[in-house]
Design brief:
The chain has 118 residues and is mainly alpha-helical. It is 83% helix and 0% strand. The chain folds into two domains: 80 residues; 38 residues. It is rod-shaped.
């Protein structure tokens, strides 16, 4: 091997090294951005989990209160069903019917109004 071949080999290796260093730097930047994004996503997930726990607990307490009120109403009426139960039951049935009608009628539009859940 003569000197020119050695210099050409060194230059080729140097070029490849510089190219590899640039690629590594770019991957390190992408990794850093991905880690920041993951940390933010994990933080948001924790906040959502806390909110879900609060909503679940609130729903459970409201259910307990509703059960108590319905039980008190039943006790007052004796064997009759409470009117509040009928009202709640009728409202739920109407919502289910309205939702099924809107789902079958608005399949192409993809829009659902707030009235579906009111």
């Amino acid at each position: 091997m003569d000197t020119s071949e050695i210099l050409r080999t060194i230059a080729t290796l140097n070029t490849r090294t510089v190219r590899a260093e640039r690629i590594i730097a770019r991957y390190e930047q992408e990794l850093s951005a991905a880690r920041r994004s993951l940390a933010q996503t994990n933080h948001e997930l924790e906040e959502i989990a806390k909110l879900a726990e609060i909503l679940y607990e609130t729903n459970r307490k409201l259910g307990t209160v509703t059960d108590y009120l319905l039980e008190q109403q039943t006790t007052k009426l004796g064997d009759q069903e409470p009117k509040s139960f009928d009202a709640v039951f009728n409202m739920v049935v109407k919502q289910v019917e309205d939702k099924s009608k809107s789902d079958s009628g608005d399949v192409g539009s993809g829009t659902h109004g707030a009235s579906d859940y009111a």
